[in-house]
Amino acid sequence: MELKANQTHGLVCAHHHLYSSLARGMPSPAQAPTSFHEILESVWWKLDRSLDLDIIEWSAKLGALEALRSGTTCIIDHHESPNAIEGSLTTISEACASLGVRVNTCYGVTDRNHEGSEKAMAMTEDAKRGLEENHRFISEGGRGMIGIHAAFTCSDETLEAAAGLASDLDVGVHVHVAEGEIDASATSRLKPLSKDNWLLIHGVKLEDDHGLKGTIIHNPRSNMNNSVGYAEPLRFSNPVGLGTDGIGADMIDEFRVAYVRLRENHIIESPEKVWEMLEVNNSLFPECINDVVTWTYHKMEPWHLAFTTGVRPVNIQINGEHVMENGEFTKIDAAEIEAKAAEASIRLFKKIAEIT
Fold first, then answer.
1. CA torsion 134→247→24→17, rounded to 10°?
2. What is the pTM of this model?
3. Which of 136, 158, 270, 333 lies in the 20 to 30 Å Cα band around 300?
4. Strand 72-77 relative to strand 11-16: parallel, antiparallel, unpaired?
């Protein structure tokens, strides 16, 4: 299909956390975190422990709605909800499908919810349940990968079991890698296991010649927000895609952030380098080529978009079906989704506040 100058295929977010869609406005930690590990412990690990299937559903629907408003029709999601593991991936998949959004999701297994988990020598019950949820979802026809939270929260047994299950099911592994110093040992632990179909998320602290197989997903806005450093993505020989790490799914905006972050360090680089990351995203979710987005801007190409804000979709076709026309959704009740999500967020915040 030949596209017009103001059109693109559906955009792909190569790393999202749909469960974080309700996080805006959540209670601040009693004490401000001063490190990446403290951010995880006091914010995100409390949030994921507070999730139930109803909250997960409305988080996913809100995230899918906001993705469409940004021209994103395909999402690669990474999920964790230790108190609502069973059925969580189906809940996410069905929530996205109800809006027409394609999703590839996984459950991020971890041993961290066991006392002394960072030094655990064996797989915990939570990790086993997470692996089973991945297995169930994919075996029943769901589109997914095998999720791992990060090597530093997993025993060797859990890492090996996750990699083995991925091979058995002929899918890749979706894992955070060397996002901060606390996960600096990830390379040596994952190198014997990694394969070309893995997604390696962040890679901030990876060495240039790290030797891991897979596609690295760069998340510039999140890395800056967590103060973990700059991944210098052009230094890798791996393919590099672009994600948001749960801060929405506006890939044009993320492209723009990635470009200015690149230029901060490399004045001679062009936005075409970052646009190539979006093309890598397309290869990870090739069905996006069946989607057509018509935009408010007259020329959807990198040198224009790097310096043009406020570009929005006006028409969206997903696999031939009109989802948006003249800037309005055709069958989606956005107001209802936003209202139900707001109600779910109140329950979520209350549950977070109850965690000590």
1. 0
2. 0.96
3. 333
4. parallel
